[in-house]
Design a protein that fits this description.
Number of helices: 23
Bound molecules: adenosine-5'-diphosphate, magnesium ion
Oligomer: single chain
Number of strands: 17
Largest sheet: 9 strands, mixed
Shape: globular
Radius of gyration: 28 Å
């Protein structure tokens, strides 16, 4: 098997190797040019590629093709067309044209568009993204595409991502040129998303409506053991889990997804997978595929893979870490502190641009990680707080301090010194004292954004980050423009000093989980946007609309439509959860409470009949408690049902979302506590659902 892996790897993608083999030389060259420089693809090239792609796909068992896209649902979408084409004599040939490759027209009217489609053309089209390789899955050729309306509005997550990569590349190249770099023509964003997930037994999963409808448990008493022994993190893999992970790796490798690291996570039944990083749009496609294949492979192993951010109360939820950096087309990582003065200047400018970007647009970064599911994690002492800040580590913070104060790094005396002369400490990757509590950490040669929820699309935070960094670079450029080359070092030094003074408030190297930080952050004037309804209105404030429109990432209409979609999604999620809880408690849990109260009372009565002098305080207390629980739950459910009705009658979506957050979720939380307490009284045989100990410890 092992010797076959290099052969197996990427065997299901239309790879460079396949292209080279199947395409005429000039066509291959033209396609490479499009892939590398983003140039327009001529129709004859498209036709040639289509023929090669179809041939390869059919050889590998494909009968259909699909334009694969990422609408705003957060999932991926596909509509399959077969290659067959009648040849007129009652027979068919397998056919696929350049036009079909380049453009598709799914009937898109049912995808969320946040009102865009009312104002614009109803139909959308998909456009091939040649920079992300096509692949075969389940007998279908998948063509990665972007999804737009005919009037050009983005209806997906990929279009703005590609736009943001362009914006960043162009600002970064401009800056590099200004700093004297003569070779770079393109800068790409690279992403390595670490993905956390839970595995549960399929049979047990099927018995819980909350897992089925909401992806998370809505109540359930804690198991006697949680994660307190810290024995699961990096622990030995159980055979069932190990078999699953192996199959998962193989499936991912076939699709050219470089799954690299796998291990057990902190919570019982929780695991993680990390790939080797890739160009942003490819990494985003890969992460979407990874999530899908995680679920599919689990199915085969009689497991269910949960990607919800908080499937179980009382133990850690799942996140996704977005490792992010910038790489030039000649292979230089711009966030890697170099060893020469010129590299130092370059590094410091880009580092400072990221710091500025995150400080200026911390609210957008927060929004990019917001969802109903992730609200359960952020600030919950397991994930970074809802406050966005940057961890730089002591060394780098000291470097900035010395620049700000015109001091030699590592010495205390004051000297006028330009940055090129500074010797930057060489940061060893994987340095040990990495701060796990920071939402945005510098980790040696990249930044790691840790706020994301496990089910999120990684497109969103990277759209924000790329655009915000593009803007920071554009502003720096304006400040430096016109400087003579011999004055550049000094000018950069002065620029950095100004920027450090202005933005150092976002830098925090301490414990992000602490209460003191919340207070400190407030005094620094940082945002603390607790919930999704709290942060979403920031999406449409002027500075953020200006940012996105200036860099042509979103039009104003696109921003407002996205804001609406996010709100709507939040409201729908909470209402589905509320209805599920109503149903589970009313139909299944209450009868169990009642049955056990009745049984206890009946047993007590028969004991009493047998021995009339018997006193039974324990039984009495139990029946009283169960009866009280029954009443409390019934009352709570009535209130919850009323609140759901009230929410549904609110016209203003923002208000409805806030109502869901403040009224419905807190009512659900109260019900959860009551049900959890009752669950501990009732024997397993009478409980209608598998409990936490079964769900978390049965594999
Ligand atoms: P940890 O769990 O300690 O954060 P991992 O090794 O699990 O580290 O994950 C690090 C992730 O960062 C991997 O996906 C890796 O490919 C990615 N990564 C490394 N270098 C870069 C880079 N230059 N740009 C983007 N991602 C990167
Ligand atoms: Mg990490």
């Amino acid at each position: 098997m092992n010797r076959q892996i290099p052969e197996l790897y990427g065997s299901m993608i239309f790879s460079d190797k396949v292209m080279r083999k199947k395409l005429p030389k000039d066509m291959y060259k033209a396609l490479r040019k499009t892939i590398e420089n983003g140039t327009h693809l001529e129709l004859d090239v498209a036709n040639s590629v289509a023929v090669a792609m179809k041939e390869w796909a059919v050889e590998n068992g494909a009968t259909h093709y699909t334009h694969w896209f990422q609408p705003m649902t957060g999932f991926t979408a596909e509509k399959h067309d077969s290659f067959i084409s009648p040849s007129g004599d009652g027979e068919v040939i397998m056919d696929f044209s350049g036009k079909e490759l380049v453009k598709g027209e799914p009937d898109a009217s049912s995808f969320p568009s946040g009102g865009l489609r009312a104002t614009f053309e109803a139909r959308g089209y998909t456009a091939w993204d040649p920079t992300s390789p096509a692949f075969i899955k389940d007998g279908t050729l998948y063509i990665p595409t972007a999804f737009c309306s005919y009037s050009g509005e983005a209806l997906d997550k990929k279009t703005p991502l590609l736009r943001s990569m362009e914006a960043l590349s162009s600002e970064a190249v401009k800056m590099l040129k200004l700093l004297g770099n003569k070779t770079v023509t393109r800068v790409s964003t690279t992403i390595g998303p670490e993905q956390e997930y839970f595995l549960v037994d399929k049979e047990l999963y099927r018995q819980r409506k909350d897992l089925i409808f909401c992806g998370r448990t809505l109540f359930g008493a804690s198991a006697p053991k949680g994660q307190e022994m810290e024995d699961h993190y990096f622990g030995a893999l159980k055979p069932k889990v190990s078999a699953y992970m192996h199959d998962l790796d193989v499936e991912l490798w076939k699709l050219g997804i470089p799954a690299k690291t796998k291990h057990n996570e902190v919570a019982p039944a929780q695991h993680e997978l990390a790939p080797v990083f890739d160009t942003a749009n490819v990494a985003v496609d890969h992460n979407q595929l990874t999530m899908e294949i995680m679920k599919k492979v689990a199915e085969k192993h009689n497991l269910v893979c949960l990607l919800h951010e908080k499937p179980f109360e009382g133990i850690n939820g799942s996140g996704k870490h977005n490792n992010w950096s910038l790489i030039t087309n000649d292979g230089v990582n711009l966030l890697d502190p170099g060893r020469t003065p010129a590299q130092n200047i370059q590094f410091l400018v880009f580092l400072m641009a990221v710091i500025k970007a995150v400080d200026d647009y911390a609210d957008l970064m927060r929004i990019s990680a917001s969802s109903a599911g992730n609200d359960h994690r952020l600030g919950g002492n397991e994930a970074p707080p809802a406050i966005v800040s940057i961890f730089l580590g002591d060394e780098l913070t000291a470097v900035l301090h010395s620049i700000e104060n015109d001091m030699y790094f590592g010495k205390q005396e004051k000297v006028q010194l330009d940055i090129g002369a500074h010797v930057l400490p060489h940061f060893v990757k994987d340095s040990t004292d990495r701060n796990r509590t920071s939402p945005f950490a510098f980790t040696g040669n990249k930044f790691e954004f840790r706020m994301l929820g496990s089910s999120a699309s990684v497109a969103t935070p990277n759209i924000v980050l790329n655009t915000a960094v593009a803007e920071a670079l554009a502003q720096f450029y304006q400040e430096l423009e016109g400087t003579k080359p011999e004055d550049m070092e000094h000018a950069v030094h002065e620029l950095l000093k100004r920027a450090i003074r202005k933005h150092k408030k976002i830098i925090f190297n301490g414990n992000g989980y602490s209460e003191e930080w919340v207070k400190e952050a407030e005094s620094r004037g940082l945002y603390n946007l607790i919930s999704t309804p709290d942060c979403l209105p920031q999406f449409i404030v002027e500075k953020n609309v200006d940012l996105f429109t200036k860099h042509h990432i979103f039009t104003k209409d696109e921003i407002f439509s996205r804001y609406e979609i996010l709100l709507e999604n939040y409201v729908k999620t909470i209402l589905i959860e509320a209805r599920t809880l109503l149903e589970m408690l009313t139909k299944d849990f209450l009868p169990a409470v009642s049955a056990f109260a009745g049984q206890t009372a009946k047993n007590a009565a028969s004991k009493k009949a047998f021995l009339p002098t018997l006193s039974m305080p324990a039984e009495e207390a139990l029946v009283t408690k169960l009866t009280k629980t029954y009443t409390d739950l019934t009352d709570g459910l009535t209130q919850l049902a009323d609140l759901v009705r009230e929410a549904e009658s609110i016209d203003d979506m923002q208000k409805e979302a806030e109502f869901c957050h403040t009224q419905i979720l807190s009512r659900m939380e109260a019900l959860r506590l009551t049900a959890n307490a009752a669950e501990t009284l009732i024997p397993d045989t009478l409980l209608p659902y598998p409990t936490y100990d079964q769900l978390l410890f049965s594999l």
